[in-house]
Structure formats: C-alpha cells, structure tokens
Amino acid sequence: MRPLILSTYELGHQPHLAALIAGVLKEGQVDYDIVDLSIDPNLDEVFESDQDSHTGEIFIETVVFTVGMLTSAMLFRDVLSHLVKNSGHIKNLIVYGLYANEVANEALGISYEDLTVRTTPTIEEIAQDLGVENTMGKRYLPVRDSLPDLRRYKTVTTSGIDRVTGYTEASVGCRHRCRHCPLPIYFNGKVMVNPVEDILNDIEVQVSAGATHITLGDPDFFNAPIHAMKVARAIKARFDNLTFDCTIKIEHLLKHGRYLEELTELGCIYITSAIESLSDETLTNLAKGHSSSDVNEALQLVDRAGIDFHPSFVPFTPWTKLEDFEDILVFVYQNSMEQTLEPVQLSIKLLVPSNSLLLETPAFSEFKTHYDVETFSYLWRYREPKVESLQNAIVDQVQKSQLCHDNFEDTFFALWSITEEHLGRSIATPIRNKRRADAVKSSEAWFCCAEPTAAQRLRG
Ligand code: SF4
Description:
This protein is an alpha/beta fold. The protein has 2 domains: 4-129, Flavodoxin domain (Rossmann fold), CATH 3.40.50.360; 150-453, pyruvate-formate lyase- activating enzyme, CATH 3.80.30. Helix content is 36%, strand content 19%. Helix 3 links the parallel strand 3 (58-66) and strand 4 (88-96). It is globular. The two termini are 25 Å apart. The site of iron/sulfur cluster (SF4) has 11 residues, from helix 6.
C-alpha cells in the first residue's frame, strides 16, 4: 500500500491535516505520496502514475482526502468528477475533515471497495485506518518535507517586509456554539490542547524552511488562554524574531484583554476576529456572544496593544438590511481598513451546512428554503428582497475586481457606490479613528465561510 494523500485548500497555508497524516505514515515507515492541489492543480499529472497504460483506467490502492472546510469540500467535487470521468477505482477511500460526510456522499459516483469517513479523526484513528501500528498516547509531529516549498504559500507583509508564513495549531476544537459555524456540530464545546514542545518542534521545521511568521490557526487562540500564553511565551523564547498571528473572538478579546500587550511583546502582529455583522439582531441569531458595541471596545483594546485588527464578516444573512451593509462599510472606512480588508469579506453570504445549529432556530427556519447539493448548504431567502439585489451587485463587483487585480481600496469605493445606489442616497463619510498598530497585509483572503471563487476551481 502506498497511500496518496490529497489536499485541496487550507486557507493558503501548507496543509496541516495532510502533514499530520504524513507524520503518522512516516513514523510507521509507510511510503506515501502527498499532493496539495492548491499549489499543483494538475489532476492528470496526479493520477498519471496510477493509470493503466492500456485501458487508461486509474487504480489507486488507498487515497486519503482531507476536507477541513467548505471550500475544500467543494473543490474536491472537481477531483471526484475527474475520477468518475477517468474510470477511477480506489481500493480504500478515506475522507477526513469537517466536510467528510458531504464529500463521501458525493463519492458514490466513483468506484471503491472500502470507505472510511471521519469528521474529526484522532491520531489513533488515523494510525488505525492506515494500518500503522500505534501505541496508545504516542505523539506524531506533522511531516512537511514532501509538501511544496513553504515559500509558495501565504505571506504576510508589514512595514514593507514580506514574511514567509508557516502554520501550526496550539489547540483543536472550540468551546463555543456559534450557530452558523460547523465546528460545534462535531466538537460540541470540546477543546484539546497540543503539547507545547510539539508545537515548537513543528514551528522549528518551518523556520528552517524559511518561515519568519507563523499563523496559529486554532479556531480560537483564547479557548484555552493559559495554554495559549504558554505557547506564545515559548515561541518568543525559542525564536526571538518570529512574528505570529492568531484568531480570537470578540468575547475573548474583552474577557482576556489583559494579555494583549504581552502578546505584542511576544511577536503577535495581527489578530483575526470574526465580527460577522454589526446588527445586534443578526449577532443574536448567530449566537456570536458579542454585541455591536463590544466590537468597538475590542478593536480599541487590540489597537492600543499595537496589534493590527483583521475583521471577518458574514454581511449577507436572511436578516440583513441595506443599512446593516452600510454600517459595515462605514466601520471599515472609519478604522482605515479599506486597504487591507480582502474585498471578498464584504461579499460573503451565510452558509448553513447540514446539521447546522441554525436549523434548530425559528429565526432561521422562517427563511429556509431547501438543501442545495451544489453548495452543501441550506438555501434561504432574504426578509428584505432588495438586499438580494445588493448582494448580487457586490459579488459581481468583487469578482470583477479580483479578475482585474484592482487594489482593495478602489474595490472598496466601488462597493460604497453600489450601496449608495441601492440606498437611494449617499452615505455620510465618518471621521477616521486614529489607529496605533501598523497595518499588516496577508496575501491570502479569509475564505473560511465562503464558496470557492471561479479562480480557485481546479483544472480537471
Ligand atoms: S465561530 Fe469561532 S468561536 Fe464560534 S463556534 Fe466557530 S470557531 Fe468557535
């Protein structure tokens, strides 16, 4: 057995789950192939070595798909259709990740003998599935040496310096139950922390490969704040000049704000925080755990600490009003974020996966229509139909600007004009807030809750 590990997309960084699987196989002295289609997207090349030269049929003994998020699940549809088109046959098909069930349903069109599906596989389960002898409690490090060079992945830029960016996780899972998020469906409030020494060793490998910045990709870095600070202090002690970023929810920024200045000293240069909306009605419906006024308070805390604040939004929900979108534009402008905010953030529509906690709420049920196989999501209608026209115009403009490589600022003001047209009036330009932190730009958009764009689709 020579397993083929296939990853499509992990938010622009080297695929972590694929590297963990490689770690288990390497420890078990099993040879494997690993392909990250976000970097090497040629499916024909990937399957060529497994193709019968006479019949053209593809035969793969074991293939492991990693589908940690919606975008990767949708991209895998392209891989599956390629296998169907090319009479693919797989002996053992293993699908790992939060969207594993959805991808497995789609895999019915291809031929395979055994199917294993795990949404949140443990290391022990990975070892068992791949036939690696495993002693309970054995630790495995991600193995990255067969993945594409780190320099081909996301970079962050600050003060004119581009930083090669690595990725690791201090913890897995999430304590919270935000209704629009797929994590609570599977973790149900559970968080597991990774040993500090393992995290440092994983970072060391990536620093040797050129990383000068690390994304700590925990769903929320402050789910386990004491552990998080231990990790940040240990990073500083071992890699003095390394910078890092992390994701922290508004509620945690307010609750654990006392740590922020220390995080700056330890090398944190930006924090991503899911604002989602500035409408208190929407925030309540999503059970986000913060209000619109909390957002400004959290932003001030982060900025005062000298850390750049990167918001993410889900501007379009069933409850969105035209004025809610206006509020987001004003917030972005007021806080001078229009040059660094990825425009796609302003076009994201609420996705509702199967088993979503939103399906249990009357606030959502009222607008739900049906399950859409194409997007692995329940569709819904707007309470105010004119918002649909705004959203379509915003999506069109963002896609057009992406294709033309327009700068973020120009795109932002194009979206501003579109919104004014829909409102039938101009938007009052707010006074800018003074910001202390240096702006940090990431080369990668935050696509966590978004459908893949046309540019992300694979060739196949
Ligand atoms: S949105 Fe963030 S804080 Fe909320 S459940 Fe998901 S990962 Fe946790």
